Amino acid sequence: AGGPGDETYSEQLRKVISTRELEPFTRFLGWRDDIVSLMSSADLLIMPSQDEGVPNTVQEAMYMGTPVVVSTAGGMSEIVAHQATGWVRPLHSHRQWAEDVISCLCDPDRTKGIRCQASRYSAEQFGTKLWGERYLAVIDDVLSGPM
Fold first, then answer.
1. pTM of the model
2. E strand or H helix at 38, and its extent?
3. Residues 6+ away with beta carbon under 8 Å from 46
4. Residues 76-126 pLDDT 10s
5. At what angle do helices 108-126 and 56-64 cross, to 10 degrees?
6. Neighbours of 53 (CB within 10 A)
7. Helices 108-126 & 128-144 angle (0-180, nearest 10)
8. CB within 10 Å: which end of the chain, N or C, has fewer?
């Protein structure tokens, strides 16, 4: 799901999906206004990014209790604790990614624990109340500084 992006990448992705005969398991949804509904009904969010900051998508999934498997790109490994609030893997460790996906889907009790920890952690660390307080503290520092 998502709006238009890198057309070259999209075309490469479509070719890989076709070559590996993954069309029955893959849908390109385009721009959607019901992401919360989609994500909350998902079994798992897989974010195999090569270049990433700290994506809102991962934070939002964690908050909603959707398990995440993310790459080590950017700041994702700073917000996802491996096997505690999700899974973190080097991008090209395909077997490990597959094992994490299978583990998530086949061990619902373990996954439930990770879902709960991720949701609790993200509510504590990424909630608007906390960020509002942090921004207010910065503004207070600036305004109370030397003039």
1. 0.78
2. helix 35-40
3. 68, 69, 97, 101
4. 999 999 999 999 999 899 999 999 999 988 999 999 999 999 999 999 888
5. 120
6. 10
7. 30
8. C
Say what the pLDDT of residue 4 is: 64
46 - beta bridge partners? Answer: 69
Tokens 């994490």 correspond to what residue?
100
Tell whether the model's pLDDT for residue 60 goes beyond 80: yes
- To which residue do tokens 């993954």 refer? 22
Structure tokens, 117 = 């920890």
Closest CA to 62 of 75, 34, 81, 89: 81
Could you give the CA distance from residue 68 to residue 58 in angstroms, rounded to a whole number? 7
Alpha carbon separation from 51 to 12, 54, 64, 115, 123 (Å, rounded): 17, 10, 24, 25, 25
Number of other residues whose CB lies within 10 A of the CB of residue 124: 10
Considering only CA atoms, give the Rg of the chain: 18
Q: How buried is residue 33: exposed, middle or buried, by Cβ count under 10 Å (0-12/13-18/19+)?
A: exposed
